[in-house]
Amino acid sequence: MGDNREILGNKSDHIETCLFMNKTYFCPKFLQMTTNRTFTMIKPDAVENGNIGAILEKITSAGFKIVAMKYTQLSRRDAEKFYEIHIERQFFADLVQFMTRGPIVSAILEKENAVDDFRALIGATNPAEAAEGTIRKLFATDIAENAVHGSDSDENAAIEGAFHFSGREIY
Ligand code: GDP
């Protein structure tokens, strides 16, 4: 976490982090819930298959502005932390193995209604069930290697963005 966090609002009301006006803050829940940002990763399968450019094209054509982006590789510890909500699932070890096997592109995206609109753009977790034209329908292999991640709530978007980027990497 960057050292540029400041306190917004009532201290008693604080959650851990949120993104607001291009910076990462400790801030009250109501600010976190009003962000128009989401977090994404282009996963190792899509990178291996040469689909970074095509996926970014779909994202920007759909009206998302890239406010942070990096080409990086998750460590085992990163992946276990990022996906800790799935720790009890039978596929957890496979998921960590997959997400760490090669580089990814991580990004924070901005748009009105970013979380829901991005989930619609990427399609269902299982590409066999994803709508025509969605990123997972076009580029995913199967339910495990499904090309992209998209945050499932404003709260998780803020937490996931702050996990990958410091305030000074967000524009
Ligand atoms: P998402 O929000 O659409 O990404 O789906 P989930 O939060 O349910 O799952 C997180 C990620 O775990 C998915 O995007 C897949 O990469 C992986 N995953 C989900 N279901 C399975 C499964 O049945 N098997 C395996 N190996 N991986 C899965």
List the keywords.
single chain, 171 residues, alpha+beta, 4-stranded antiparallel β-sheet, two-stranded antiparallel ribbon, 6 strands, binds guanosine-5'-diphosphate
Q: What's the number of domains?
A: 1
Which hetero ligands occur in this complex? guanosine-5'-diphosphate
Give the second-level CATH assignment, the architecture: 2-Layer Sandwich
Q: Major sheet: size, sense and barrel closure?
A: 4 strands, antiparallel
What's the total count of β strands? 6
Distance between the termini: 16 Å
Give the helix level as a range of percent: 25-40%
Shape: globular
| Residues in β-strands, percent | 15-25%
Report the average pLDDT across residues: 88
Strand order of the largest sheet: 4-5-3-6
Note the run of SSEs as H and E.
EEHEHHEHHEHHEH
